[in-house]
Amino acid sequence: MADQRLELIVSLVEERGFVSIKELSQLFDVSEVTIRRAVQRLDEENRLRRTHGGVVPLPSPTARSLAHERLGEGFFTDRVDVLIATSIGTYSDRVLLAQAEKRNIPIVAESLDPSGSRALVAVDNHAASLALGRWAGHYAQQHFDGQANVLDLTYHLRNTLARSHGFIAGLREVLPEAQTILSINAQSAWQPAYQVTLDALHVYPSINVIFAINDATAGGAIEACRQAEVDPASILVLPFGLEGNTLRDALLEGEYCKAGLAMFPEIVGPVCIEAAIKACNGEMMSRQLITPHAVLTSQTLSDFYTRTDAGWQINWENVQRQLTIPLPINPPAPREQDALPRRIGFVVPHVEHEWYQNLLFCMQRHVERLQVELEIVDADQNLKDEVTLRRRAIAHVAATQVQPGEVILVGTGQISVYLAEELAKLEHEFTVITNSVQVFGILHDKHSIGLISTGGQLRRATDALVGPTAEEVLRGLRADKCLLEVAGFTIEFGLSHTNLSEVTIKQAMIRAAREVILMADHTQAGQESVVQIAPTNVVSKLISDNALPASTRLDLAKAGIEVVLAQT
Fold it and tell me: What is the pLDDT of residue 53?
């Protein structure tokens, strides 16, 4: 079974280009730990390459010869010269920009600008959807007696909202009386789009035009139409994307999908790479690199694509004759290797979307020709790594609070585990009282540290010792400081946590300490968890990271709590 899983992973990655650890875990219904072990083995056997948050195929032999060193386990921005990224949210954008600015790495934006980028590579969303809307209007004139009742499967980002607005505007240019029956956020995913469409068709049977901001939502809508047994002659499903084989096949069949807006990942991928090279060299280029689009039908699909056994292949001769590409993607003269970046990073926000799977594939083919490395980064994993980095910095500062001869209380939590690793590096003597099995294990062999376990019942979910036995032990002990970690804190609700048994042991720790020092990163600030541990005024000092909002810092200062920020 394990060997078969390895072969399936190799086949899937070679087909898709990049697959995240999380997705592999879900596909094979095993833990992420199991997948990481399998990926580690495949990497050691030189069959695949581990990358940030996932796995990619091996580069071609030519490109592979350039990779003298393995990708490290450190932060990915330490290993790349330039980044290609998409805006996916205020917080994640801020994290990415901070990482890039700290290391002086230029960013090229794809699809949506996170601000601070050197250039944005994207289709003109409004103009493209306007063209698709006009096509839909003319189709409705000919087939629906001039009636168009629209279900708009939109999304909350600027570019996807522009697609929805442009489509409706184009439709109403042709049919001024066209009605938007329902405009709803389908979360840019297949399953929500399927359910929303199924419900909408039941409640509003007059719907005859469905606009989908990408292929995933269009796929869900098409399946909903099939399940509802809607006559294909009575409805249109119009995708913005035609990102890969799935919707191009649906367009060729001409059942529910009779037209679509093509964004051409085969063009966008190389343009992103060429823009990244220019940004890395500080070369001038347009701030907006607008990539081409085309409204395609089953009759015109073959103008730009050919169906082969390996999937749909782009017809470059027609593309170059009919479309405008914003940067040369096949420069006539070879470039010197020192004019190229050593490694380009690509931050992938939605690895499950065919757009990013195909975009990645096209980027990889382009960089191999240039003999440049491409490191793929899972956006979710990047955020997790950023939080981990900040938590380690908090633990490092917290360890400096421990003076020779002191007795300290350390509880459970990820920061507490990192704290134990920092405490193990200290040379002076002190004593640690803990209810954490992990903390106890880390400090077990450090003879300069006195170590006391509270005992108690093991809560396996967090490796915490809890219950009356542990609480009774703490009643008979006194500590100088309690270095405490909780699930969340606010000025109003105080310190809070998720599990009642851990709340009572944390309350016992607070009572046993002369001073309470809270360790919490900025993601825990402003969060109110299930159960209150204590009011905020029990805390004398908060150790957090430099992303803690200034307003929160001021509120804590007003409450008499010292704030110490760990720098990352």
Answer: 64
Looking at the DSSP assignment, which residues form a beta bridge with residue 56? 49
CB-hemisphere CA count at 13 Å for 228?
Answer: 25
What gap in Å lies between CA 253 and CA 409, rounded to an integer?
67
Residue type, 431: T
The helix/strand/coil state of 314 is strand
212, β-bridge pairs:
153, 239
CA 305 to chain centre: 31
User: Between vectors from CA 560 to CA 557 and to CA 561, what angle results, nearest 5°?
Assistant: 70
**Domain with residues 1-53, CATH architecture:** Orthogonal Bundle (1.10)
Q: What value, to the nearest 5°, has the Cα angle with vertex 545 and ends 349 and 548?
A: 80
Q: What is the rounded distance in angstroms from the CA atom of residue 299 to the CA atom of residue 133?
A: 18
Residue that has been written with the tokens 């350390």 in this structure: 410
CA 355 to chain centre: 15
> In this structure, what token pair is assigned to residue 475?
């009643």
CATH architecture of 400-566: 3-Layer(aba) Sandwich (3.40)
Residue 192: closest CA among 220, 160, 214 = 220
Higher-confidence residue: 100 or 563? 563
Contact 77, 98 (CB under 8 A): no
CB atoms within 10 A of CB 429: 12
Residue 543: CB partners within 8 Å, gap ≥ 6? 394, 397, 398, 401, 517, 518, 519, 520, 564, 565, 566
For the chain, the domains span: 1-53, 127-262, 400-566
Contact 215, 354 (CB under 8 A): yes
Q: Is 519:416 a contact under the CB 8 Å cutoff?
A: yes
Q: Report the distance separating Cα 473 and Cα 469, nearest Å.
A: 6
Q: Work out the angle at residue 16's Cα, subtended by the Cα atoms of residues 14 and 20, and round it to the nearest 5 degrees.
A: 100
> Tens digits of per-residue pLDDT, 238-263?
999 999 999 999 999 999 999 999 99
- At 510, give phi and psi (nearest 5°): -60, -45
The pTM of this model reads 0.72
The candidate with the shortest Cα–Cα distance to 382, out of 99, 125, 150, is 99
| Lowest-pLDDT choice from 50-54, 188-192, 198-202, 383-387 | 50-54
> Domain 127-262 - what CATH class?
alpha beta
| Integer Cα distance of 499 and 497 in angstroms | 6
Task: Kindly state the helix (H) or strand (E) to which residue 348 belongs, with its residue range.
Answer: strand 343-348
Residues linked to residue 457 through DSSP beta bridges, in sequence order: 466
Please tell me what DSSP assigns to residue 76: G
